[in-house]
Amino acid sequence: MKYHSNKRVLVTGGAGFLGSHLCDRMMEKGYEVLCLDNFFTGNKRNIQHLLSEPNFEVIRHDLTQQIFLEVDEIYNLACPASPIHYQHNPVKTVKTNVLGAIHMLGLAKRVRAKILQASTSEIYGNPEIHPQRENYWGNVNTIGPRSCYDEGKRCAETLFFDYHRQNGVNIRVVRIFNTYGPRMHPHDGRVVSNFIVQALLDQDITIYGDGSQTRSFCYVDDLVEGMIRMMNAPDEFIGPVNLGNPHEFTILQLAKKVMELTGAKSKLVFRSLPVDDPLQRQPDIRLAKERLDWKPEIQLETGLMKTIEYFRDILSEFH
Ligand code: NAD
Ligand code: UDP
C-alpha cells in the first residue's frame, strides 16, 4: 500500500527559471509538489504565487548534501545554467552536478521513485556534427572555463545510466537546448535576457564575436511539456532525448529581432567571443517526435513578445 494517495513530486532547482514553470504544471495536475532549492540563482518571486497552496512545500537545501524524503517522482534540475553563474564557483558546479546526481539517484533507489535528469546540449560541446543527434558523443574541452558545467553534466548522465544498469533505477534523461521565457534572471548573462534587458533600457546590445554563431531557442512552455512527456513515457524509453527548438538563428538575427519587437533605440556593439563558445547548435528532435509525439509549438516572435512583457514588468524592481 502507498503511504499517501496523491502523487508526490520533487523538483530540485524548483525556484529557478525552468523549475518554477515545472512546479506550476505539477500543481495544475493536482500533485503534491516539493520544491527544493538553495536559492543561488533561484528566486522566491518565481514561486510566490504557490506558497500559500496546501499541496506546495519549499525545502531550502543544498543538493551537495544528502537529504531523505518520501517521493514518487524526481525532476533533477538543480544547477546554475548560465555561464556567468556556473563559472562563479566552478568547483561547486561540479559538486552540484555530481554529488547532486548521486544524492538524488540514491534517494530514487531507496524509495523507488522515477527520476528525470535535466541534462544539456552542452554535453555535445563545440559540435562537429550538425544538427546534433543523441548518438553523437560530443566535442568537449575537459579543462576550459565551461568544463565544470559540461563535464559535470556528462558525469551526471553516466551516473544515471550506471544506477539504472546496476540498481534498476527508473531513469529518464533529457538534453535541453537553449530555452528562454518569463522568469529568466535579468542579470544571468544569457543572450535572450541580456538582449531584452539592454533593449528595454536603450543600452548597447552586446554581441559577442561577430554574431554569426548560431543557437536554437525553445520557449519554456514547450520545453516543460517535453519534460513531462518524457517522465510519463513507457519505462523502456529512458533517453537520452534532445528537447529544443530546431529553428536556428544567428546571434545577430536574434539581436535585430529583439530590437524590432521592443522598438529599442539601442546600437549593436561587438565584444570578444568567450573561450570555448560553441559556434553552432541545433537539436535534431526526430527521436522526441517519434517517441514522445512532441515538438515545439511556439514561434520565436511569439515567445519573445511574452518574455519582453515579463521583463517590462519586473525591470523596475531591479533598477
Ligand atoms: P536556473 O539557474 O534558473 O535554475 C537552477 C536552480 O537550481 C536555481 O533555482 C538554483 O538556485 C538551484 N540550485 C543551484 N545549485 C543548487 C544546489 N547546489 N542545491 C540546490 N539548488 C541549487 O536555471 P534554469 O535555466 O532553470 O535551468 C534548470 C536546469 O535545466 C539546470 O540543471 C540546467 O543545467 C538545465 N538546462 C537549462 C537550459 C536553459 O536553456 N535554460 C539548457 C540546458 C539545460
Ligand atoms: N551572447 C552574446 N551577447 C550576450 C550574451 C551572449 O552575443 O550579451 C552569445 C554567446 O557568446 C553565445 C550565445 O549568445 O554565443 C548564447 O549564449 P548563452 O550564454 O545564452 O548560452 P550558451 O552559450 O550556453 O548557449
Describe this structure in words.
About 35% of the residues lie in helices and about 15% in strands. The protein is of the alpha/beta class and about 325 residues long. The protein has a domain at about 10-180 and about 220-245 and about 280-300: NAD(P)-binding Rossmann-like Domain (Rossmann fold), CATH 3.40.50. The protein has a seven-stranded parallel sheet, with helices on both faces. A two-stranded parallel sheet has the order 7-10. Strands 8-13 form a two-stranded parallel sheet. The relative contact order is 0.13. The mean pLDDT is about 95. Bound molecules: nicotinamide-adenine-dinucleotide and uridine-5'-diphosphate (UDP).
Write a concise keyword list for the protein shown above.
319 residues; alpha/beta; Rossmann fold; seven-stranded parallel β-sheet; two-stranded parallel sheet; 9 helices; globular; binds nicotinamide-adenine-dinucleotide; binds uridine-5'-diphosphate
Catalogue the ligands: nicotinamide-adenine-dinucleotide, uridine-5'-diphosphate
The backbone outline, from C-alpha atoms, is: globular
Q: Cα distance, first to last residue?
A: 53 Å
Secondary-structure content class: alpha/beta
CATH superfamily of the domain at 8-180 and 219-246 and 279-298: NAD(P)-binding Rossmann-like Domain
**Order of strands, widest sheet:** 3-2-1-4-5-6-11
The top-level CATH class of the domain at 8-180 and 219-246 and 279-298 is Alpha Beta
How large is the radius of gyration?
19 Å
Q: What pattern of helices and strands is seen along the backbone? A: EHEEEHHEHEEHEEEHEEHEHH
β-strand percent reads: 15-25%
CATH topology-level name of the domain at 8-180 and 219-246 and 279-298:
Rossmann fold
Largest sheet: 7 strands, parallel
Number of DSSP-assigned strands: 13
